Structures are given as structure tokens and as C-alpha cells.
Amino acid sequence: MNSDGTRSFLKSLTHGVKLDKRQISSTKQHAPTYISRQSLQEIDQEIDFFGCDQTQNTNPVSLCAQSPAKPVHDSSQPATQTRKRKTDSENDLLPDNQSSLAHNIEVVPAFKPSITKSMTKSKKQREDEQASIALFRRQMGIRVEGAHVPNPIATFESIPADQNGQEKQFRSILLHNIEASDFKEPTAIQMQAIPSLLAGRDVLGTAPTGSGKTAAFLIPMLLRLAQTQSQSSIRSIIVVPTRELAVQIEKEVNRLTVGYGFQTVVLSKSQTETIRTNFRKETSIPIDILIATPLRLVHLIQTAKIDLCGVEMITLDEADRLFELGFIEQIDEIIASCTLRDIQRAMFSATMLQGVEEAAISVLRDPIKITVGIKNAGASSIDQKLMFVGKEEGKLVAMKQLIHTGLQIPALLFVQNKDRVNELYQELLYDGIHVGAIHADRTQEKRDQVIREFRAGEIWVLLCTDLMCRGLDFKAVNMVINYDFPQSAVSYIHRIGRTGRNGRKGFAVTFFTERDMQYVRPIANVIKLSGQDVPAWMLSLKKPSTGKRQHLLKAPPKRQRVTTVSGYDLQKAHKRKQMKKRHITRSKIASIE
Prior knowledge:
Elements: H1 3-14, E1 86-87, E2 104-105, E3 107-108, H2 123-140, E4 142-145, E5 149-150, H3 165-180, H4 188-198, E6 203-206, H5 213-227, E7 234-239, H6 243-256, E8 264-266, H7 269-280, E9 287-292, H8 294-304, E10 313-317, H9 319-322, H10 328-337, E11 344-349, H11 354-361, E12 368-372, E13 382-390, H12 392-405, E14 411-414, H13 418-428, E15 435-438, H14 444-455, E16 461-464, E17 479-482, H15 489-496, E18 506-513, H16 520-529, H17 536-539, H18 546-554, H19 567-592
Parallel strand pairs: 3-5, 6-11, 6-12, 7-9, 7-10, 8-9, 10-11, 13-18, 14-16, 14-17, 15-16, 17-18
Antiparallel strand pairs: 1-2, 4-12
Helix pairs in contact: 1-2, 3-5, 4-5, 5-6, 8-10
């Protein structure tokens, strides 16, 4: 069956389908617990770019104190204690010499007619259906793990629909807004994540940068919110690592909900007081979607004594970043505060290391794991290049040559820290290009202004640190330049992921010096996994030790300041400065004597 035929088949399967009710296994007890730091010991390990040791946590637990869930029985099915999983042998994208992911899935038809003699499908028909769905997933690069995985959708029109009148009204508005946003058809992650979340399942989704992960969790969240009315003060929560990403998600919500009244709030300092005041009123206005960074949300929970027992859905975007040690305690407190028994949890990211994945799965119940494309690799639409520049001063020379010969604007330029952002900004300011800079030390107003100017095309080259590379969607970025070598392969993937989004062509150039040579191999592996040619000598370089990689993450290398002055001249200037200081000191001592 060809691709068009498979899509037509899937449309017929999913047209006019009722939502599946969430099935909660009676054999699993969700005892209250907290995230163990033990599960995060492997976070800093190097990504295995040529094979994955996929160990799935078969006994996930909830972080919230709650009663054991009651089993939901389907009267049309005989009661059984366990369900056998069927292995989809066709759904494997990796070559034979690479270890593959486990694809233990059982495809559940989206709708179950009453079983009569004339309507009962033959075994051959069921096998053909499953084979067609497996073929479609393989063609789209979708891999799934978990029990009772819903069928993927092929079009937005085939999104499963409920019979609720209010949800029907919003569904037509949503489809109109999707069409107005120039979304032609769902992306791979949306095809599988939307029906899975609409079925009430917990989801762990991994897909390349720019692949539509935000819409993949927003569309089902909005549809589920439209199904029912609730007087809970906060109905759903989206947790993100940066405020810039929170604002971007709010804009996406507004675009999808034009013509319908959802109450969406980005948690800020001023909004904290508003929510606190509103929560104390007897007739408080419910917040449908609260978007927040971990620190802001924890502060709200602790100071305002906000009760999150009515939260129906919680989503962690850029989940691997949120499960790092800097955020882990805050995420623990947030999840523990959401105590609704049937709460739905979802986590999405472009990269997912083994230790982080295990920690994430430990807080999900009977999750569906969705992986699109090759795990922990850059998008194939990005043309990636590694450029040797010798020493530090060679970077500025290469950068200025790039500006005059091959710079694709608008461009993002990543450097190691805020001091180097300011230094490079001063060097490029007078080279005839419109340059801007953004980092954590700038005020929120200034950061917002710079982002607006970059989106409007008033800034051609935006200088930033790794803080900015998480999740931000600049649709028109043509080029990413890694002025300073990334501290990890994960950082590299997220940096270059700012270009080549939604299938557009993008370019990424990474400078490296003699000092960076020992860390080149992991980046070269990422480029090779993306389907691009890499010089053989780069792949044969010695692999950095675990200790070196961990040290690099905690303490970035010290680099000389960004300037056109050579290193030799800088040393001479430093010597003269030291001699002048000593001369002044001797003069003071002589005058005292």
C-alpha cells in the first residue's frame, strides 16, 4: 500500500470517532513518592549516537499522594488480568548494526461497533489494518512504546471528536484557526500525540526541533478543556524553562483560540498578586491554562497557598531541561501539588538522555512513549558544518569573513556567556550589520524589545547564550553560528534547532579551536546521524572521558576576551599594565619612607 493509500485508510479509520475512555490498570498501585536523585545519576553521560539501551520503567509511580485508581472495565470485552503486548516488527527505523527501540504496541481501533455476525472483522482484516498502520508510522518516522496505543491521524479533520455540543462548537473554530495558520497537515509528532492525549493517556514525546511539538500538546489540551466546564481556579498547567518560551506558547494558544474565550495566563511577578487576590474571592474566575517557569510557580504555591487539586492536565515542555538538577526539586513540588487522581501528565522535548528519560517516566502512569525520527539528532533540513579556526582570535576573523561572503540573515549567534556576548556585540556593531544582544542579565523589557525587533527584521544578527536556545521559534532564521563550541551534544542540537524549522532549509556553522578538538567527536556523531557527510578523521578522534564531559558542563573553558587585538599584543598590554602597577606601588612606598 503506498503512502496516499495508507493516509486514505487512516482517514476512514478515524473519521467521526468517539474518544476512548482512559483505562487505568487495577494491577498498578500509585504510591506517593518523590523523584529520586538516583535516577538522575546518568544524566551527564554522553549520548549513545549509534545505539540505545532502552530500558523501560514498567512500574511508573505518581509523585502525588492519592488513592489507588479504580479499574475501568469495558463491558464489550471479557475481563482479564493482563493484556499481552504485540510486537510491531515492521516499525523499526534503525539499521541492523544499531540497537533498536522496543516497539511493544497493541493498536486499538479508534471505534468499536457492537459485535454482530455481519460486522465482525476477520482475522485477516485486522492484520491488514495493523500492517497498514505500522507502515504509515514507519513512513512518517514514528516509533511508539506502550499498551493500547491509539491509531495516528492523517489530517486535522480526522481528530477524534466527542458528542459534547460545546466541544463540537470549539472544534469547528479550532479547525478554522488551524487552516488560517497555514498548517496543511499534521506533523509526525502531532499525528500520534494528538489522539494519544485525547484518549486521556500520559505521553512522553521526543521529536526534532521545529517539528510542531507545541501544537501537538496544545490542540488536545484545548479540546479537552472545551468538553467540560469547571470552577477550579486553575484547570491546566504548562511548565517551561524560560519566560520567553512561556510568552511564545501564549501566542500560539491565542492563535489557535481566536473566536473562543479561553482564559490563558503567563505567570509573572504582577500576575502572581492578581492570582492570589482572585483565588481568595468566592466567585473567582477560573484560569484555563497557566503557563509558568518552575521558580515562579513554586513561589505562587508557597506564598499564595494556591490549591492545585483541580488541575486536570500538566505538561512539561523542554522536559529534559526541567529534569536537570537545577529544576528537579521545583518540578517535584509542582507535580506533588497537583493531587487530582485522574490528572493527565505529558512531557515533550527534542532531546532525552537515558537518566532524564527514566526520571520522567517515573512520574507518568501507563505512558505512551512517542519518538519521531532518529533520537538525539539534528533535523535533516539543516546543512551543518564544522569550521576549524586555530586559536581564539581566529574566530573573529572567520566571523567577519562570513559576514562579507556567506552570511544568511537573519542569523542567531551563540556564545559561551554574557560577558562574551557584550564583547562580541561591540566588535560587530561597526561592521555595517544590524546586530542585537540578549542574555539573562538584561531587563525583561529590554529582552522583549530585542526579540520583537529580531522578529520584525530590524535586527539581522542576534547574539545570545544557551539560555535562549530552548524552545524559541523564530520561523525565519536562516542561519545559526556557534561562535563558541557547545558544552554538550544536547546543547548543540538545541542551538542548531533554531533554524530549519517546519521543514525549511537552514544552515549551521560551528567554530572550533585547538582546545575544542577533544570535544569534536560527539558533535560529529550528531551531524552524521542527521544524514550528512563528516570527515573520517573527526569520527576517529579520541572520545572524551566521562570526567571531562562532566567538568565541561559544570565549568566551561576560560577563553580570552573577544577582540581584534592578537593574543601576543594582549599579553604585551597586560605586562605593561602590571609593570605600571608595580611602579606606582614602589613610588608610594618611597614617598612614605
